[in-house]
Every structure is written in C-alpha cells, then in structure tokens.
Amino acid sequence: MDSSSSQSPKAASPIPATAPAPLLSAEAAAAAGILPASHWADQPLPEEHADDDDTASTIRSVLSSTASLSSTIFQYRTHHGRTYHGDIGNAEGWEPNDMRHIESMDIAHHCFTVCTGGKLFLSPLDTKKVKKVVDIGTGTGLWAIDFADEFPHAEVIGTDITPIQPSWVPPNVQFELEDCNQEWTWAENTFDFIHIRMLIGVVEDWHALFREAYRTCKPGGYTESFVTTAHFESDDGSVKTGSALDQWGNIWAEGGKALGRTFDPYTEELQRKGMEAAGFVDIDFKDMVIPVGVWHPDKDAAERGLWWKMTLEMDLEGYLNYICHNLLGWKPEETKAFCAHVKKEWNDPNIHGYARARIAWGRKPE
Ligand SMILES: C[S@@+](CC[C@H](N)C(=O)[O-])C[C@H]1O[C@@H](n2cnc3c(N)ncnc32)[C@H](O)[C@@H]1O
Predict the structure, then answer these.
(1) DSSP string of 54-120?
(2) Residue 303 · residue 111 · CB < 8 Å
(3) CA separation for the pair 162, 154 (Å, rounded)
(4) Pocket test for ligand 1, best of 113, 161, 212 (most atoms within 8 A of CB)
(5) Which domains does the chain have, with CATH numbers?
(6) Please, are residues 130 and 192 in contact by the beta-carbon 8 Å criterion?
(7) Could you tell me if 153 and 131 are in contact, meaning their C-beta atoms sit under 8 angstroms apart?
(8) What phi, psi does 155 have (nearest 5°)?
(9) Ligand 1 center from residue 85 Cα (angstroms)
(10) What is the DSSP letter of 166?
(11) Which 3 state secondary structure label does DSSP give 26?
(12) What share of the chain in percent tops pLDDT 90?
C-alpha cells in the first residue's frame, strides 16, 4: 500500500491569525527556568551542517502530496507562516498540519515502530478475533493503514481533529474527525483494540480519556498507549543546566501548563493511573530510552535515536513554533536561533541526551 499520498493542505486559504499576546511574562518565564530568547539570538549561530538539507530533501522526495480539497475544515490557523488545525470547537492543536510537519509525523511512525521492534502493538491480542480497532489521534494515519494491511479482516478507524490522512488507503480503513477530549461518539463495547500513540500535549484529562477507552472497549479487548517524555536527560551530566537541551524540557513543561495539557504523562504515570482508575486489568508496560542520534552503544537504542533525530530535525521549528511564539512571545528569528543551538547539541558527540518512552496496555475484564 502506497501510504505516501497525504492530502496536502497547500490549497487552503488560511484564516489570518493575529499574533496572540504571550501568555507568560518575562518574570514568570524566568521563574520557570526559561532563559530569554535574546540569550540564544545573542550567541553566534552554529554553522548549519551542509548535509542537513540534503537529508531533508531526500526524504521529502520519497514522500509526495497528491490531493487537495477545499472545505472549511481546510481553513487553518496560521502562526509565523505555519498552518494549524482550525476547526472542531476548541480543540486547538500545537502541532502544525502542513506538509513539512506531515513528513516529520511519517518518519515518527517509523521511529515508533522501530521502538516496538517492528510490531504495531505490544498488547497480547488474539489477532484472529480482532474485528474492530480505533487509532485515536492518528496523525497521518500510517499506523491505522499498516494495521489494516496486516489484518485485512479487521475494520480500522483512525481519528484526528485535522484531515491530514491519505485518501488512497486499504478498504478496511476509514478516518473520522473526532476530538478525543470530548465524549467519544461510539457505543460501549465497540472495539477489540484501542491504540493511542503520542498524544502528549493533546489530552486534557488522561483519566477521562481512559474512561472513554474503557467504555468503548469490548470486554476482553485491549487499550494501548505510547508516550515519550519531552525533556532530555543524560547519565553523564552532558546535558548541562542552561544548555539548549536543558531549556527544551523547561519550555515544554511550561507549554503544557499554559495549554492545560501535559507533555509529560510518562513522569506523572498517567497511563497506569488512568487505566487502573478506569477499570482495566492486567496492566503491563515496556519502558525504553530514546536517545537523540546514534551515540548510544546499544545497537537498538542507537537505531531508535537515528529515527528520533530524523523525526525532530525534519521539522524542529514546527515543533517549537506554537509554544515559543504563543506562550513565550519569541520572534521567528529567536525560535530559529534556539533551534540552531538545539541541533548543534544534538550533533555534538560529547552530549548524550535521551528521552524516555513507555508503552502501556491493559485489558477490559469480561
Ligand atoms: C504527535 S501526533 C501523533 C500522531 C499518531 N498518533 C502517531 O503516533 O504517529 C498528535 C496528533 O494528535 C492530533 N490531535 C490534536 N488534538 C487532538 C484532539 N483533541 N483529538 C484528536 N486528535 C488530536 C494532532 O492533530 C496530531 O495528528
């Protein structure tokens, strides 16, 4: 199945957005340990690596956009030249939904599949009996498409608030616009498997999310959730206080508070707590580190690191734009300067930063 034909939002006529006032005062940002934007802009910019653009364009050339649709759902908010989902009530997303970010999401799907050893799930599913599956916040829909390809007898639904999924998909996949923070529209006991991956900074209430998952999961069915942390640690102290990688964590932590949607369900253990409170049983999980880059001596960790770095570098500014602009009031060139320092540290072989990931699953009792 050619899954490269993501619908392009290029034909959209974006809704002009006025730059909102920064949510965080300079004093509050300083209290949260966030250095002012001028700190990054004042330092000499690291030289761009000559091969950065080559890598990006090689990957881009593999991916293509084929379709364009016009409807109000394709009228996106814009912030500093990037487009964002602009419809469905108040489900305001921090991730761009333009082509560059779509490419990053597609690489992320490969990265997360590498994290699970090439598997699409870790729950102990009886796959022959799986008839109906949902992927909540499906993004570009590649997980749903791969699952549908592998299990053609299953009906797979992918949901999102933004229509960036391809139109050329297996016959047993469909995509629906659905806000995961609202009451879900399906009847109870609908799904054999509910897949929820990387909804950090998306979910308003993880307990409510797992309550809806429990309600719509069939007895005996499974719900699985995959999250990463949004800060970098190092075992050897190479991620130093005040460095760009250290600041990265502070920025996302404050971003989550301002949005009212945490970027750190891992550390808050919200997967286990939410699943337990909802009633799931046999809760289990797999933890791992995800380095940035290939520095890790363990081959599997290094492979995860290669793809994580590719994912983030494909659209680093896209990941940071909304939070830095809307929360901190940074100018585009200041966000760019910060990105250059982040990239420099990722490319420094003496800096050994990593994030953590947890894949957790639970069964709804019969
Ligand atoms: C980091 S991406 C993860 C995509 C996909 N789950 C994956 O792992 O490849 C987060 C996705 O959540 C979607 N999203 C944001 N807010 C949402 C909401 N309220 N309900 C459903 N999806 C939402 C975004 O549009 C984006 O596609």
Answers:
(1) HHHHHHHHH-EE-----SGGG--EEETTEEE---STT---SSB-SHHHHHHHHHHHHHHHHHTTT-S
(2) no
(3) 24
(4) 161
(5) 5-15+24-363 (3.40.50.150)
(6) yes
(7) yes
(8) -95, 125
(9) 11
(10) B
(11) helix
(12) 68
- Continuous segment of H or E residues that includes residue 356: strand 354-363
- Roughly how many angstroms between the first and final C-alpha of the chain, as a whole number? 36
Q: Which of 88, 92, 178, 202 to mutate to test the pocket of ligand 1 (most atoms within 8 A of CB)?
A: 202
Section 189-194 average pLDDT: 98
Structure tokens at 198: 């990387």
In angstroms, the CA 260 to CA 363 distance is 28
Residue with tokens 């793809």: 307
Which one-letter DSSP state was computed for residue 330? -
CA 6 – CA 106 distance, rounded (Å): 10
Whether the per-residue pLDDT at 213 is higher than 90: the answer is yes
- Asked if 323 and 338 touch (Cβ cutoff 8 Å), the reply is no
DSSP assigned state of 172: T
pLDDT tens-digit series, residues 273-327: 999 999 999 999 999 999 999 999 999 999 999 999 999 999 999 999 988 988 8
Give pLDDT, residue 71: 42
Pairing of strands 281-291, 354-363: antiparallel
Within 6 A (CB) of ligand 1 lie: 85, 91, 93, 95, 105, 108-109, 112, 137-139, 143, 159-162, 179-181, 197-199, 202
User: Regarding predicted confidence, which is higher, 338 or 82?
Assistant: 338
Q: What is the pLDDT of residue 159?
A: 96
Tokens 């492979």 -> residue: 303
DSSP 205-268: -HHHHHHHHHHHEEEEEEEEEEEE-SS-B-SSS-S-TTSHHHHHHHHHHHHHHHHTS-S-TTTT
Residues shown for the chain: 366
| 324 contact partners, CB below 8 Å, separation of at least 6 | 37, 251, 330, 334, 335, 338
pLDDT value of position 19 = 41
Confidence band of 94 (pLDDT split at 50, 70, 90): confident
DSSP code of 167? S
